[in-house]
Amino acid sequence: MKAFTTGPFTGRHIAMIMVAFFAVVIAVNLLMARFAISTFGGVVVENSYVASQHFNTWLDEAEREKALGWNAEAQRLKDGRLAVRLTGAPGEGVILSADARHPLGRLPDQLLRFQRQADGRFVSQQALPAGRWRLRIEATAGAQRWRTEQEVL
User: How far apart (Å, rounded) are the C-alpha atoms in residues 103 and 123?
Assistant: First the structure.
């Protein structure tokens, strides 16, 4: 019974198989490297050692913020501005701001300032460009400070 070839299996056949195999491996590696470079948004922290020294402090701050029981829900309005409903926070004296970051770093960060409306919502003073954004929301009321992150489309 013959295999898939019509003649004998020679060194030329094995050489072509080896070249084809490594060509596929190299092509896949180049493609993956291109995707990795084109989608990486930048540095997460400037100095990982310094960041590690502050880690426990950040955990303590997160616990204090969680204990406040505040919650925020952001949505995009038709005119491109953002509306944030803050629950659990004091009724007066709350200042809300947000840093909108494009998840892939392709658009510059947007610093958003909010004004409280009569219905209790906070509406941004400026519109946010269309697309997917990661919001870092910060609310302060006197000495209390609360932060959260969420995506808005």
Answer: 22
Helices H / strands E in the chain, number of each: 2, 7
Q: Residue 2 — pLDDT band, cuts 50, 70, 90?
A: low
- For the record, the structure tokens of 100 come out as 């909108």
β-pairing, 110-116 vs 95-101, is antiparallel
DSSP string over 86-125: EESS-SSS-EEEEEEE-TTS-S--EEEEEEE-TTS-EEES
The CB density around residue 2, as the number of other CB atoms within 10 Å, is 6
- State residue 3's pLDDT score: 58
How far is residue 32's CA from residue 37's CA, in Å, rounded to a whole number? 9
CA-closest candidate to residue 84, choices 136, 40, 39: 136
> For residue 101, with 0-12 CB atoms within 10 Å meaning exposed, 13-18 middle and 19 or more buried, which class applies?
middle
Q: What is the mean pLDDT of the chain?
A: 88
Q: How confident is the model at residue 14 (pLDDT cuts 50, 70, 90)?
A: very high
